[in-house]
């Protein structure tokens, strides 16, 4: 069985641990690798190695850091399909979804190559007589990232390229369920020319995470995952006075107005709800049908019923399996609760079977109508290919419903009315809004801006806010005295 290496000070090496976890293929539950839970000594070596590397890396010229990212994005593009294949094998994602995962990460690396313009300071001459004030953007030190299973390329690439381009060093703890993609990302980063120690990778569970959160050399913590863990990460890290960005769960709504383009609504709603098996924090899990648009629920059902899950290399598959047996059991339990609490199960994927893969974590497209906000399926993030339908009378009712939800990651409205769209974007209390766009994840020159219970912290992931998160501003006020210039009385003559 393949054992996953740790990556410390430029060395991909086998851990000395006695504690191992199994990495499984979600389509078959076959064990594909053994994952080490790093020892305390190995954790210490990773963090202290990053701290030592920072002493040199922080002084490397900004253009040189940018060139590293240019080389890295070139290698990532060159190995794009290879990375997507590896990612598919450990996550179960179909190949198209895996390629999208890798590409969205590459886009962030390209933005990291623009680091010079993003770390420019400011200057004001003569704030007082012969006194100038200017700001300098400087790196913080050792940063760490704790990443989830659902985007093993994109989310690590949200973090370490920008942090390192800013002059920091980075310790990555990828999800114990999908560690192989992260190791390959590190191999390519080293091949691009990254110095030893600038990026370190350790593996494990809560014990290893707690070590990172408490270590005095770690300056920032970046996290993406479930709400309870995000809350824990934020509370624990701030207890040790660290800067934190913790991206949490969601309950994303798509509001469907009666004047919307029906075909666009149906196609986008299906893809946004069951794509990637619903295992993404920006998935649309609630459709809010306003007025007569509720007549389209049957069309959504018909379109969803045509989508079938399957193996990652099946060109006819619409999405892959859930990540684990535990995830499948949880989703099936929530589906059953929805039935028990009175929601109408229009389409039931509970008994889904995929030929040739009887042991996979399969759940088929599932559609509920007649959903009430008091139901468990509405109150909890399902994180599966399940779409809930709620009917309201007006746009005002839709706004009230979405704003009452404790989460605020993403939302969208489908309408042909500019006035309705503007009212929605202005009044909605959600951080990322799509207008006739189902999943409004911004490109990396903006930031990923979840609100409310979907985010804990102040500065968001990637974009300009990430640069601020991974740096500190130093303000200098300077005064120079002309009379101190050597040979001042003859300065004009000397210049000639």
User: Which structural class matches the secondary elements?
Assistant: alpha/beta
Radius of gyration: 25 Å
The rough form would be described as globular
Helix content: 25-40%
Query: What topology, given as strand order, has the largest sheet?
Result: 14-15-16-13-12-18-19
Strand content: 15-25%
The residue-averaged pLDDT reads 96
Poorly predicted spans:
none
The count of β-strands is 22
Q: What is the first-to-last residue Cα distance?
A: 77 Å
Q: Report the biggest beta sheet as strand number plus sense, adding barrel if it closes.
A: 7 strands, mixed
Q: Can you count the helices?
A: 17
Family: Belongs to the aldehyde dehydrogenase family.
EC number: 1.2.1.27
GO molecular function, one term: methylmalonate-semialdehyde dehydrogenase (acylating, NAD) activity
Pfam families: Aldedh
Overall description:
- With 496 residues, the chain is of the alpha/beta class.
- The chain is 38% helix and 22% strand.
- It has 17 helices and 22 strands.
- The protein has helices at 40-57, 62-78, 80-91, 95-112, 115-118, 154-165, 180-191, 206-214, 227-239, 262-274, 297-305, 325-340, 376-379, 395-404, 418-427, 463-469, 491-495; strands at residues 6-8, 11-13, 20-25, 30-36, 123-128, 131-139, 142-146, 169-173, 199-201, 218-224, 243-247, 252-256, 284-290, 344-347, 366-369, 386-392, 407-408, 410-414, 432-435, 451-452, 455-457, 471-479.
- It has a 7-stranded mixed β-sheet, sandwiched between helices. It has a 6-stranded mixed β-sheet with strand order 9-8-7-10-11-21, sandwiched between helices. Strands 5-6-22 form a 3-stranded antiparallel β-sheet.
- Helix 2 runs antiparallel to helix 4 (95-112) and helix 3 packs antiparallel against helix 7.
- The longest helix has 18 residues, at 40-57.
- The protein is globular, with a radius of gyration of 25 Å.
- The termini are far apart.
- Its EC number is 1.2.1.27.
- GO terms for molecular function: methylmalonate-semialdehyde dehydrogenase (acylating, NAD) activity.
- Keywords: NAD, Oxidoreductase.
- Residues 14-476 form the Aldehyde dehydrogenase domain.
């Amino acid at each position: 069985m393949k054992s996953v290496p740790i990556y410390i000070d430029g060395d991909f090496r086998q851990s000395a641990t006695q504690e191992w976890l199994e990495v499984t293929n979600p389509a078959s539950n076959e064990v594909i690798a053994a994952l080490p839970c790093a020892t305390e000594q190995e954790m210490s070596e990773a963090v202290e190695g990053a701290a030592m590397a920072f002493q040199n890396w922080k002084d490397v010229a900004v253009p040189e850091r940018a060139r590293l990212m240019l080389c890295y994005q070139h290698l990532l593009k060159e190995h794009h399909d290879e990375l997507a294949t590896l990612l598919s094998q450990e996550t179960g994602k179909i190949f198209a979804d895996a390629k999208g995962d890798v590409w969205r990460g590459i886009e962030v690396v390209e933005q990291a190559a623009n680091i010079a313009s993003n770390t420019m300071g400011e200057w004001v001459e003569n704030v007082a007589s012969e006194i100038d004030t200017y700001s300098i953007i400087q790196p913080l030190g050792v940063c760490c990232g704790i990443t989830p299973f659902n985007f093993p390329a994109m989310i690590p690439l949200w973090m370490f390229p920008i942090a390192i381009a800013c002059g920091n060093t980075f310790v990555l703890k990828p999800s114990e369920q999908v560690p192989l993609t992260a190791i390959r990302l590190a191999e390519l980063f080293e091949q691009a020319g990254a110095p030893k120690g600038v990026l370190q990778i350790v593996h494990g569970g809560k014990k290893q995470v707690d070590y990172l959160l408490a270590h005095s050399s770690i300056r920032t913590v970046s996290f993406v995952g479930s709400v309870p863990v995000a809350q824990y990460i934020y509370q624990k890290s701030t207890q040790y006075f660290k800067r934190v960005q913790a991206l949490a769960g969601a309950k994303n709504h798509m509001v469907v107005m009666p004047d919307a383009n029906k075909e666009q609504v149906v196609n986008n709603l299906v893809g946004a709800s069951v794509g990637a098996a619903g295992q993404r924090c920006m998935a649309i899990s609630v459709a809010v049908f306003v007025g007569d648009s509720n007549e389209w629920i049957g069309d959504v059902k018909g379109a969803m019923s045509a989508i079938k899950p399957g193996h990652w290399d099946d060109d006819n598959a619409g999405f892959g399996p859930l990540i684990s047996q535990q995830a499948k059991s949880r989703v099936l339990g929530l589906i059953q609760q929805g039935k028990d609490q009175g929601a109408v199960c229009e389409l039931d994927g509970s008994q889904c079977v995929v030929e040739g893969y009887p042991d996979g974590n399969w759940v088929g497209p599932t559609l509920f109508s007649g959903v009430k906000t008091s139901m468990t399926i509405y109150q909890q993030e399902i994180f599966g290919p399940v779409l809930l339908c709620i009917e309201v009378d007006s746009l005002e009712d839709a706004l009230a419903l979405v704003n009452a939800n404790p989460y605020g990651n993403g939302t969208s409205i489908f309408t042909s009315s500019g006035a309705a769209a503007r009212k929605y974007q202005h009044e909605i209390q959600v951080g990322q809004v799509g207008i006739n766009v189902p999943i409004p994840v911004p490109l990396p020159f903006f930031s990923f801006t979840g609100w409310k219970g979907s985010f804990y912290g102040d500065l968001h992931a990637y974009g300009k806010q990430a640069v601020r998160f991974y740096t500190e501003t130093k303000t200098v006020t300077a005064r120079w005295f002309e009379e101190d210039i050597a040979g001042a009385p003859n300065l004009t003559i000397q210049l000639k």
